[in-house]
Amino acid sequence: MRRPTRRFSASASDILLHQGVSDLRPPWHSFCVTEQYMRKFIFIPVVNHLELLEKAIASVPAGIFDEYIIFNNTSSSLNIDTLHFRVMDLGERKTFRDTQNIMRKYAIDNNYDYYCFMHNDGEVTDDSTVQRLVKMAEDQTDKWSVIFTNYDVLCAYSTECVKAIGEWGDFKWPKEQHNGYYLDNDYYRRMNFEWAKEQTLPDSSVLHSEPSNTIKDPDEHILWRSQIDNVERHYRMKWGGLPGHEKCDKSFGDLVL
Question: What are phi and psi of 27, to 5 degrees?
Fold first, then answer.
């Protein structure tokens, strides 16, 4: 028997960027926390393929994070057992960019030290990977930006870094884009130039069960094909080439924009 999904919700007006996101407070926000303790949460956004989401949820051990959040972008209820995760259901589907910016603001407004992002088609095959990722984040003595495992299928973001770097995307980024292609390359590149070099947890056990599962949906694929030219054009203008072939540094990118 499936247990009912736990959720918290907000009206559409509450979830506009810069308006009301700070009101979505974690359940522990009024409690005192010892100075040494580092606050952290993990979130998994989902658009489709709930069978993969169930695998992702089950693979993340309980008792490590202060919050476990599913960011529901399916435009419907999640009829699955979310175990120790709860659902952030904001009433309408958000783009990848908006999702990342909402969770960035959530981390800043609620004084989290860092937070983890996981793909809904990811799966951790060894509990020690999550524990080692947390330890690596909390053992940092200098400023840090992002810690990857299997790239960003599971990764940790420094709240201090994302606060300094700013929002995902930029004011000229094509607003019609729904997925995260090129947006992630852009943001991690900005992290590397403007804050601290990315790091990778060695010997992580993180699978990418179904890469690109979102755009394998026929409707999502058609949508992305209509957007890709504008997104690639903007990325080229900003960095001088597509991912892996960039020629510009951060300062040139700023001049272009």
Answer: -65, -20
Assigned domain for 257 exists: no
CATH number of the domain at 200, please. Answer: 3.90.550.10
What is the predicted pLDDT for the residue at 228? 86
pTM of this prediction? 0.84
56 within 8 A of 120, measured Cβ to Cβ? yes
- Is there a domain that residue 229 lies in? no
Span 105-122, average pLDDT: 97
Boundaries of domain holding 168 = 7-210
- The angle formed by the CA atoms of residues 10, 105 and 187, to the nearest 5 degrees, is 125
